[in-house]
Automatic annotation (TrEMBL):
CDD domains: MhqN-like. Keywords: Oxidoreductase. InterPro entries: Nitroreductase, Nitroreductase-like. Transmembrane segments: none annotated. This is NAD(P)H nitroreductase. Signal peptide: none annotated. Residues 14-188 form the Nitroreductase domain. Belongs to the nitroreductase family.
Length: 208
């Protein structure tokens, strides 16, 4: 096995869901931005990247979130809470994304126009529930990538779905197209995370 593979395994197994963070530890905006820039290399449906991020570091805002998030300790003690928000109208970005791909030399004019036409025929006409499912799936991909990147940089995380999404959207005055999907607490662990086990692979895998 290559050294890269060994290093990847080390990060994967080291990442645990931490719930006790050092409340005095801060991570600057520049480093958080750098981690997000790396995380968005994650794949997404038709490359429409239906993720948006709201980075919350203000102490009072974290307290506000916690009032409708079951008073989870990590929300107030983490260096930042990163809200991963799904764009259910991701089709508004079709031209910008695909023409950028053309400008980068990743595709030719003929094929980019086919991609644009196909995407514009499919996504605006898809039911909201379908687009919501796409955004949710893609948010999971970028969230996992962000948590691994954070661990590789020496930070700790925990993903949280246990919060009132309607209250969150109202509190931050999100447009109706944007739906909060997951909160990621980011910081330095104040105590180790609990270990956890997994089901045996034979019990969850079938080869055909």
């Amino acid at each position: 096995m290559s050294q890269n593979y060994e290093e990847l395994l080390e990060v994967m197994h080291a990442r645990k869901s931490v719930r006790k963070f050092d409340p005095h530890y801060t991570i600057n905006k520049e480093e958080i931005t750098s981690m997000l820039e790396e995380a968005i290399s994650a794949p997404s449906s038709s490359n429409l990247q239906p993720w948006r991020f709201l980075v919350i570091q203000d102490r009072e805002l974290k307290k506000k979130i916690n009032r409708f998030s079951f008073n989870q300790e990590q929300i107030e003690t983490a260096s930042a809470i990163i809200a991963v928000i799904g764009d259910t109208e991701m089709y508004h970005n079709i031209d910008e994304i695909y023409l950028s791909n053309l400008a980068a030399g990743n595709i030719d004019e003929e094929h980019v126009q086919i991609q644009i036409q196909n995407a514009k025929a499919a996504y605006p006409n898809a039911p909201l529930e379908v687009r919501r499912n796409i955004a949710t799936f893609d948010a999971g991909l970028v969230s996992m990538q962000l948590m691994l990147i954070a661990k590789a940089r020496g930070y700790d995380t925990v993903p949280m779905g246990g919060f009132d999404k309607q209250q969150f959207a109202a509190s931050f005055e999100l447009e109706s197209r944007y739906e909060p999907l997951v909160l990621i607490a980011l910081g330095k662990a104040a105590s180790p995370a609990y270990g956890s086990t997994r089901l045996p692979i034979d019990s969850i895998t079938t080869y055909m």
